[in-house]
Every structure is written in structure tokens, then in C-alpha cells.
Write a structure and sequence with these properties.
This protein is mainly β and 357 residues long. It is 2% helix and 48% strand. A hairpin with a 5-residue loop joins β20 and β21.
């Protein structure tokens, strides 16, 4: 079996910042845990790990997996014990899974099927695909537009398209019917963030822009280009609502984390931390967390001074971040490097960091 896919879609889904209750204890290998540090538990899990979501009670961790890219069809959504990282369930899907969002009641997990240009809604009760939407757009090579990030807001799913020109699909979360397309969104739609402070959606793209979208009208109201004419591939975002700061990463072109005024787009500071992928702000601890694929590190910065507080060595490639509601537990997916044939030399892993230690 030879899997074909868009190189651009694969690149941007790999650069990203679950479900069934079916028991797998008889078929799943025992958890391999590594005591990386006293505050850290790491488990080798599977190939192709990307985004995560915590159940409403914080006791289960869902992980989207594309599995392998060489001679492997479909993916898996893993359900782990949020404390021990042991597998308590899994859902095997016919398409590969990348981005993830969970319904507020925890009954549905939404996953982007990036290489197939779609999104699936999977029941957390039985692990079955409840519904799916496959978008019709194709690029000049005939590949689907890559569906990268998914944002759930007010009963709607906003899904960014990796395309040139890019767009954002707006989908009804209950029916998975396409409501509209937000067009003219630059090149390669990457990160999506909703701010309760401003009641606006922020969208990052490969044109070095941040788009400010009114969710009531789904119109682009502002376009910020924080680095001006300098090349930038802006990726993921996080917010400090108390101070009105928006953190934006770039691990490809500018290799930095930008600190912007969330109302005006003014650059408050450009952090000289190097390549920056996923970013989270922890209001409970006033800390900023940044993953760096190239150095293989996770950084913790002081939220006021931006001074480095701590770093974790999570080689080879720390990727996505997820923070618990109480701000005391941080989860990280750590990816293996790809070989030329899209294979890897081992499974990706999940890291759980107890920030209180």
C-alpha cells in the first residue's frame, strides 16, 4: 500500500500546537514509562501523535494519532489515564488524525483528518465515528486542502485550510454541515484562537499575518503583520487575558515567539528564544511554555519578565502542549524525526509534567 499526500499538508500538520471506551488491555503493549525527571513521567505510545484533549473531569487524556505514514492506513484515538498515562481505551479510525477538540460535555471528540481534507466527530462512549465532513477543495496537484487546526466556539467548528490561498471552513458542530467559508485568509491557515477578552477569533497564517475575525459575522475585521515584510510562518497562539497579551510562535522563518497587544496587534516584545512551536500561557503560575523542535527542549518562562525559569530536555522533537484546568499539570507530545521514506525509528511519546514539583 502506498499512501499519497500533499507534501505541504504533511509539513504543516507535522508542525502542529480522544475517544473510545473500548478496552484494549489485552491487545495493547504494557506502558513503557521513563522517569525523565522527578516531575516528569514519559510513556512511549505510538507513531504519529499530535494534539490532545482532557475530559471534563480531568481524569482521561485523549490523544490524536495519525499512526505511521509509510504503508499504514488510518489512525487511532487513544484514551489514557490522565495520571498514569496507561491506555484505558482506543478507537481505530479509517483516516489519520491530527488536530483535536472536545465537546464541553465530553461526549464527542472532533479530529481533523488533515491528509484527506476533512473532520470526523467520534463518540467517546463507543469510539465510533458519529459523522464526518470531507471538504471538496483541491489544490493544483489534485490533493485535498489540508485540514489542520480545529477550534470549537459557540456550537461552530472553525477549521483552517492548509492551502494557497487559504480559507477557514465554518461547520455546525452538531450536524457537521458546512455553514460557510471565510476566504481571503492568506497562505496556509495554521493556528486558531478564541479570546473571551475581545470576543474575537485570531487566525495565524504562513503569510506572516494574524487575522482578527468577528465570530458573530465571521468576517475578517483586521489583518496584522507584526514582522512587516520579514518572512514569517506564524503557527500557534496563546493568551494572557489579564494583561491583554497574545503570544504567537514561529519555528520556521523568524524562529521566535512574538508578544502582541491583543487589541491593537502592536509588538510588545519579540522573545529571543529560538525556534518556537507550541505555546501555552499558565495564568495560575504566570508562566509561558514553549516547545522547540530543533533543540528538543520545552521552555518555561516567567510570564512577567520572560526570563527562563526551567527547561526540559525532551528529544528528539517536543510538539503539542496541553495544560490542565488547575494549571498544575502540563502534557507534551514528543515526536520522532522522519526518515526520507516518511518512516520513523520508534514510537512518539506522551510526557506528563507535574508543575508543582
Amino acid at each position: 500500500m502506498k499512501i499519497k499526500f500533499s507534501a505541504v499538508a504533511l509539513f504543516l500538520t507535522v508542525a502542529l500546537s480522544g475517544c473510545a471506551t473500548q478496552q484494549t488491555s489485552q491487545t495493547t503493549p504494557p506502558a513503557t514509562q521513563k522517569a525523565v525527571a522527578t516531575d516528569t513521567t514519559q510513556r512511549d505510545l505510538a507513531a504519529g501523535l499530535y494534539e490532545m484533549a482532557l475530559g471534563p473531569k480531568g481524569d482521561v487524556l485523549y490523544v490524536a494519532s495519525a499512526e505511521g505514514f509509510k504503508d499504514v492506513q488510518g489512525g487511532v484515538i487513544y484514551k489514557l489515564d490522565a495520571t498514569t498515562l496507561k491506555t484505558v481505551g482506543s478507537s481505530h479510525t479509517d483516516l489519520k488524525n491530527f488536530g483535536m477538540a472536545l465537546s464541553p460535555d465530553g461526549q464527542i471528540v472532533y479530529v481533523t483528518n488533515s491528509l484527506d481534507g476533512g473532520l470526523s466527530a467520534v463518540s467517546t462512549a463507543d469510539g465510533k465515528v458519529k459523522s464526518r465532513i470531507l471538504f471538496s477543495e483541491r489544490n493544483k496537484e489534485g490533493f485535498p486542502y489540508g485540514a489542520r487546526e480545529v477550534l470549537l466556539h459557540n456550537g461552530l467548528l472553525y477549521i483552517g485550510a492548509v492551502a494557497d490561498p487559504a480559507q477557514i471552513w465554518v461547520v455546525d458542530a452538531e450536524t457537521l454541515k458546512l455553514k460557510m467559508r471565510i476566504k481571503n485568509t492568506g497562505k496556509w491557515m495554521t493556528g486558531l484562537h478564541y479570546s473571551q477578552t475581545t470576543d474575537r477569533i485570531y487566525a495565524a497564517n504562513g503569510s506572516g499575518e494574524i487575522l482578527v475575525i468577528n465570530p458573530k459575522t465571521n468576517r475578517v475585521e483586521k489583518r496584522w503583520k507584526p514582522l512587516g515584510d520579514k518572512p514569517a510562518l506564524l503557527l500557534n497562539m496563546a493568551e494572557d487575558s489579564a494583561t491583554g497579551r497574545l503570544f504567537v510562535t514561529d519555528n520556521s522563518k523568524a524562529k521566535t515567539t512574538l508578544v502582541l497587544n491583543i487589541r491593537t496587534g502592536e509588538v510588545i516584545k519579540q522573545l529571543a528564544v529560538g525556534d518556537s512551536l507550541a505555546v501555552k500561557f499558565n495564568a495560575k503560575r504566570n508562566e509561558i511554555y514553549i516547545t522547540q523542535r530543533e533543540s528538543g527542549k520545552l521552555l518555561s518562562l516567567d510570564g512577567t519578565t520572560y526570563a527562563l525559569k526551567k527547561s526540559w530536555d525532551l528529544k528528539p522533537n517536543p510538539n503539542s502542549l496541553l495544560l490542565s484546568d488547575d494549571g498544575q499539570i502540563l502534557y507534551v507530545t514528543v515526536k520522532q524525526a522522519f526518515n526520507k521514506d516518511h518512516s520513523t525509528n520508534g514510537p512518539d511519546s506522551i510526557v506528563r509534567i507535574d508543575l508543582k514539583k
